[in-house]
C-alpha cells in the first residue's frame, strides 16, 4: 500500500469519524464521549493514537494533578495499544515477506 493510499485511508477514516460524531452530537449535544471514536475501528493504530492525544490534551486543561492523572493514565493506555498494534503489523508484514 502506498503512502498516498494510507494518507487517503486515514483522511477518510477521520472524516467519517467527524461526520459520525457531528451527527450524534446534533441529536444529543450533552452526551459526547471521547471513547465513542473507538466504535469506528479499534484495530486501527491511528484511532488509538488519536485517542491518546485527545486524553493528553484534556489532561493538560485540568489544573488539579489528581484529576488530570486519570486522563494521562488513559492516554498512556491508548498510546500503548497503538504501539502494540504497530508492532503486530510489523511482525505480520515481516512474516508475510
TrEMBL record:
Alphabetical UniProt keywords: Membrane, Mitochondrion, Mitochondrion outer membrane, Protein transport, Transmembrane, Transmembrane helix, Transport
Protein name listed in UniProt: Uncharacterized protein
Domain of life: Eukaryota
Bilayer topology annotation: Single-pass membrane protein
Principal subcellular localisation of the protein: mitochondrion
Pfam families per UniProt: TOM20_plant
InterPro entries on file: TOM20_imprt_rcpt (IPR010547), TPR-like_helical_dom_sf (IPR011990)
Compartment(s) where it occurs, according to its Swiss-Prot or TrEMBL record: Mitochondrion outer membrane
Family per record: Belongs to the Tom20 family.
Described purpose of this protein according to its UniProt entry: Central component of the receptor complex responsible for the recognition and translocation of cytosolically synthesized mitochondrial preproteins. Together with TOM22 functions as the transit peptide receptor at the surface of the mitochondrion outer membrane and facilitates the movement of preproteins into the translocation pore.
Signal peptide: none
Amino acid at each position: 500500500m502506498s503512502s498516498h493510499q494510507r494518507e487517503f485511508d486515514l483522511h477518510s477514516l477521520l472524516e467519517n469519524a467527524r461526520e459520525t460524531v457531528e451527527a450524534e452530537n446534533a441529536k444529543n449535544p450533552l452526551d459526547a464521549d471521547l471513547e465513542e471514536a473507538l466504535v469506528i475501528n479499534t484495530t486501527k493504530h491511528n484511532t488509538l493514537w488519536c485517542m491518546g492525544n485527545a486524553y493528553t490534551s484534556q489532561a493538560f486543561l485540568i489544573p488539579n494533578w489528581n484529576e488530570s492523572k486519570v486522563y494521562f493514565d488513559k492516554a498512556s493506555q491508548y498510546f500503548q495499544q497503538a504501539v502494540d498494534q504497530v508492532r503486530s503489523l510489523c511482525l505480520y508484514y515481516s512474516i508475510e515477506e
